Amino acid sequence: MIVDRLYPNLKKELNKATINWVDGAGNIYLDHGHHFIWIDRHKTTPVKEKKNRAFTKTGLKVVFLFLHDEKWLNKTYREIAGKADVALGNIKHILDGLRQQRFIIDKTEKQFKLINKKKLLDQWLTAFTDKLKPRLHVDNFKFLNEKDQRVWKNLTLDEETFWGGEPGAELLTANLKPATYTLYTYNTKAILMKDYKLKPDPEGNVEVYTPYWTFETPNKKTAPALVVYTDLMATGEPRNANIANDIYERFLTHLT
Q1: In what order do the strands lie in the sheet with 2-3?
Q2: Structural domain span for residue 73
């Protein structure tokens, strides 16, 4: 994994899982056969938000839209802002930030193209995990009892609620028994308790977040595949990384 920056907790989990990585500051973890290199003393310089707005909380929502479907890159500023649900004045700064880091090239005066998409995804994932996802967290819950947890697939989700993370991966691949249940919803806590047999618990294994996308998904019960991939990779757990790679190969090849 090659990224501009990694945060300490994620480094720790990657090391534990013996997943090799290099960051933009020159830190490296490489465990390959008889060769072992581990340097982690260089300070990573954060993205300066005043000069580059692509990876601010607002920019991350717009970049996610481009990663999901590159056609949005060539829409009007007003259309992009409306679809990403951000203020119109941000769009030019976000696009300039992406150009500055060489993630956009101009095909013509009015036609643009994403490049270095996998690197962009990795950088987006790191910034999203640190800056935006914590702000989307609503609360933690747990199922009322073990039986309800075992039959989580039988829950009828409304059109404002989606499985992400491990349950989303199970629905997409049928290859991951969830330990943590990530749920994205616009519903109130009262509705979650009533309709989904949940109760608030700070240590609960049901993590509820507000959705950060505005488009429909092919599978009505799951968040977009890119969301599920991001949730899995952010955990730093080896079993989740393996399934995330499977999801990438199945659903996200446009980012290769």
Answers
A1: 2-3, 21-23, 28-32, 35-39
A2: 57-115
**Does 124 map to a domain?**
no
**Which contacts of 108-116 are long-range, i.e. CB under 8 A and separated by 24 or more positions?**
110/74, 111/74, 112/73, 112/74, 113/70, 113/73, 114/66, 114/67, 114/70, 114/73
pTM of the model: 0.78
Q: What is the bridge-based pairing of β-strands 181-185 and 206-209?
A: parallel
pLDDT in tens, 173-207: 999 999 999 999 999 999 999 999 999 999 999 99
Number of domains forming the structure of the chain: 3
Task: Count the neighbouring beta carbons within 10 Å of the beta carbon of residue 79.
Answer: 12
Asked whether residue 176 is assigned to any structural domain, the reply reads: yes
In a domain, 14, yes or no: yes
- Looking at residue 77, which CATH number applies to its domain? 1.10.10.10
Question: At how many degrees (to 10) do helices 77-84 and 91-100 cross?
Answer: 100
Confidence of residue 48 (pLDDT cuts 50, 70, 90): very low
Q: How far apart are CA 207 and CA 146, in angstroms?
A: 17
Q: Please say whether the beta carbons of 153 and 171 come within 8 A.
A: yes
One domain for residues 141 and 106: no
User: Do 102 and 151 have their domain in common?
Assistant: no
Looking at the fold, whether 23 and 66 belong to one and the same domain comes out as no
The CA angle 96-42-63, to the nearest 5 degrees, is: 25
Q: Is residue 130 part of a domain?
A: no
